[in-house]
Amino acid sequence: MYYDDNIINRYKYNVLNNEKEKIMKKRMGKIVSSLLTCTMALGLMACGSSDKSGDTSASTSSSGGKKIEFWNFFTGPDGNNMKKLIDDFNKTNPKYKINNITMAAGDMYQKIPTVVNSGKGVPDLCIVDVARVPMFQSQGILEPMDEILTREPEIKRENYREAVWNTGAIDGKQYSVPLDMGVTGLLYNKKLVEKYAPNVLDDNVVTVDEIMDIIPKAKADDIVTLPVSFFTYEMALSLATQKGGSLFNEDGITPNLNSAELKEAYQTLRDIQEAGGGSEDGDDNLQLFINNMSIFCHTGVWDYNSLMQAEDLDWGMTNTIAYSPDKIVNVSNSNQFVLLKSEARTEEKEIVIADFLDFIRENTMEWARSGQVPASNSADGEQEFQHMPGYFFVSSPEEQNSIAFRSFKYGGIVDDAIFASQNDAIYGSMSVDDFLNQAQQQSEDNIAQQGE
Amino acid sequence: MKRKKKKVNLTHLVFIAPHMIIFIVFIVIPIFFGIYVSFTKWDLIGTPQWVGLDNYKEILFNTKSTFNRQFFDGLKNTVLFVIFNVPLCIVVPLAFALVLHIRPLGSKIYQSVLYLPTLFSITSVGLIWIQLLNRRFGLASVMGAKVQWAITMPYAWIALMIMTVWWTMGSNMVIYQAALGSVPKEEYEAAEMDGAGWFTKLVKITIPSIRFQLLYTLVITIAGSFNVYGQPTIMTRVDLGAGPKINVLVQYIRSIAFGSGQSAAGIASAMAVILGLFITIVSIIQFKMIRSED
């Protein structure tokens, strides 16, 4: 009996223990799963939205403290120049430090609609291309610079290049303050010019006829005369503008891409290509120029730092090619300071922003070192700037008057339409007529989507 | 007799909750919002304006429209990419997996080398191949290339396929290696005793044994190929001032939604919805194939 009782008791004990174990395991399981869920949820929150924006950020502010969020896309070597300007400004102990947030331009332009729509994370100050200013103004997301201009009266047209200042003036209000002019012009290899076209730069402009004369001699030695490039668009615009053409009609809204002037411009560039003066599809024009394989190269002043690092390259920069030396046009981009609409931007912040913009205006020589032509004329007397290739484009009233900007409400739509098939037209896989007709149609269809 | 209340165990919900939250927030809600936007005109800034089926009519039926041209050109290139890419992305990794399964000397090193490209980002892969294929300064110049492969038809397609297979084969190869490891050796021994050669063993034993993994990678590769964007956009556009030589549909969708000018988000969403329906139909057919195999 004892034996049977013992077994039964042991059996009961084991069953009870097993039950207890099961209950413990269930409880532990619930505790562990709850902890796990909490950890994951906390992790999600930590990865969620914060006030910081941008894929890369180079904050120059001290940790903590009041900040002005400044978005820009200076991810290249010019980023160092902007960082120095910001650091120097922050050393003056403003009430708000400038927080430099750098990201790729494409990322920034994708973020802007998101932050503007949500109203959260809107930067206090932003750099945009000049082409975006009328577009953003028409979409109602820019604030006029009235407070800034009132606070700092030296930020005025007279202290800037007039043409670039005017790009920010829309309907009687100033919506942007320009930082620089990214002028595109013609690089020339001094040794190759001496060999193939000795007197061509006597008047500081290379004409289309002179290009066509150079081509046979250069081609015989397997030297490219004028390679096709990303800035072929600016070259074509320059040629079209020389003949009175424009991307848009006088209303500034209706695209005019299949105009006679633009057709002639692209046909001219195609003729240069077909005569053997251009590069092959896929060539990097700057790579060819740096390697002394090309006499000329149409590009922007911002390539200055890359060119200075090139070994065994003696180069200079002059006006864009022209039909005639009597009419020169240099198409330019421009980086512009804008204020996106934001309720978080207080009056105190605007005061500091005004101070910062005036600081940039006065210390613009640092920005000139990036290769850009400063929009402010405060560096014009500096010897260092006068020895830079960008100075050429502001060295005289004639040169300053030659600078033209693309600043239209639907300019971006037209740019995309042109870039889609521009090279096909230059390299001959599409006729110039078909290319421009297609670009015209694409522009019209996209503009129609905007309700025009 | 009182019915005992059944205790509902919610532990499983707790474990899947984080993924479900992420799935709903980042996948489900954007899908429904995108479908809504496809019935509107919207520049991403103001308020979407309801236009009903206008966007779909513009894309599918207005033959004079740029969007119609872009949609069918993009769809054509995307389908071509799927047709060329999928067989290569199945056969080539399988071949390497079969070779590695034999365990030649250094097989672990080869496995790592073959898998390594999968870890690179598409941007770095595209830039590497652009430089390699540069006719003046790249490896292609040493090999005497007469054209710029990345941007000249039909070589651009060949270059694109080689680059894509090189970049993506690692993941499929690893799946096949694991599958081959589970095939019983006795089956091969029995086949050898019956006089079967390597091809017979491959067709009669190996492939049937790993058919589920093959079908799985087929489904994943097809779905991934329909969503191709990075490879043709980066590699077949040497100059930023030109469009890619091979324009796939996702590239058109992106450029319409996030171009240099105002966005036509309604049109872009409509194209994305149509592409999504296409992929869904293809995936349903594939899943039916998998089920019938079971």
Please describe what this structure looks like.
The complex is a heterodimer of chains A (452) and B (294). Chain A is globular. In chain A, the strands form 3 sheets. In chain A, strands 1, 2, 3, 4, 7 and 12 form a 6-stranded mixed beta sheet that branches. In chain A, strands 8, 9, 10, 11, 13 and 14 form a 6-stranded mixed beta sheet that branches. In chain A, strand 5 (169-170) and strand 6 (173-174) form a beta hairpin. Chain A folds into 2 domains: 67-179 and 334-390, 3-Layer(aba) Sandwich (D-Maltodextrin-Binding Protein, domain 2); 183-332 and 410-448, D-Maltodextrin-Binding Protein, domain 2 (3-Layer(aba) Sandwich). The termini of chain A are far apart. Helix content of chain A is 47%, strand content 13%. Chain A is an alpha+beta fold and 452 residues long. By secondary structure, chain B is an all-alpha fold. Chain B has one domain (11-293): MetI-like fold (Orthogonal Bundle), CATH 1.10.3720. Chain B is 69% helix and 1% strand. Chain B has helices at 11-37, 54-61, 66-101, 107-115, 122-132, 139-142, 155-181, 185-193, 198-209, 211-226, 230-235, 249-257, 265-293, and strands at 40-41, 49-50. Chain B has a two-stranded antiparallel ribbon with strand order 1-2. The longest helix of chain B has 36 residues, at 66-101. The model of chain B has no long low-confidence stretch (mean pLDDT 89).
- Structural class per helix/strand content of chain A? alpha+beta
Shape of chain B: globular
Helix content of chain A: 40-55%
Number of helices of chain B: 13
Mean pLDDT of chain B: 89
Q: Regions of chain B with pLDDT < 50 over 5+ consecutive residues?
A: none
Largest sheet of chain A: 6 strands, mixed
